[in-house]
Design brief:
The chain has 180 residues and is α+β, with helices and mostly antiparallel strands. The protein has helices at residues 45-52, 74-78, 96-106, 111-124, 144-161, and strands at residues 7-16, 19-29, 60-65, 68-69, 81-84, 166-169. It has a 4-stranded antiparallel beta sheet with strand order 2-1-3-4. It has a two-stranded parallel sheet with strand order 5-6.
Amino acid sequence: MEDGPTIEVSNLTRFYGQLLAVDHINFSVARGEFFGFLGPNGAGKTTTVSMLTTILTPSEGTAKVHGHDIIQNPYGARENIGVVPENSNIYIDLSAWDNLVFSGELYGISRHRRESRAEELLETLGLYDRRLLNHLTPFRSYTDEVNRTTDEIFQSGNVVTGLCRQLLILSNISGSSLPP
């Protein structure tokens, strides 16, 4: 799959009852390509990402993530894609280490592999020595530093612990924020 598109979407469609949320969209993302998926609120961006990550099943059409069909092989698709949401979804009562290991567990990754990958990420970011900090650490108040450290680590966690090869970054961009 190294030569083909990393994401290939074909007639992807999603209905919620009578409401058409995603209307037969088609696109592909090449390896190494930065791909912008823009639109106003309610345009179907989140629904599309939810289908690509196999949270939702399409009403029609399909997509492939690194050659894995999201309907026929959802686990293969899931292990090759990660999502960084606009708003952090860390658990502030857990340390950065625990957040990463927990994230890997949700992806069904073995304990040995998720701990190995979490350690690799923390070492790469130079944060391994702060891996166990959270706002409950004795003699340490909840600070922006701890929150930022945990957030930085967790935002990258799906990539490292999830073994993903494709990363989707979700961010709301208003029309006034876009260049002319």
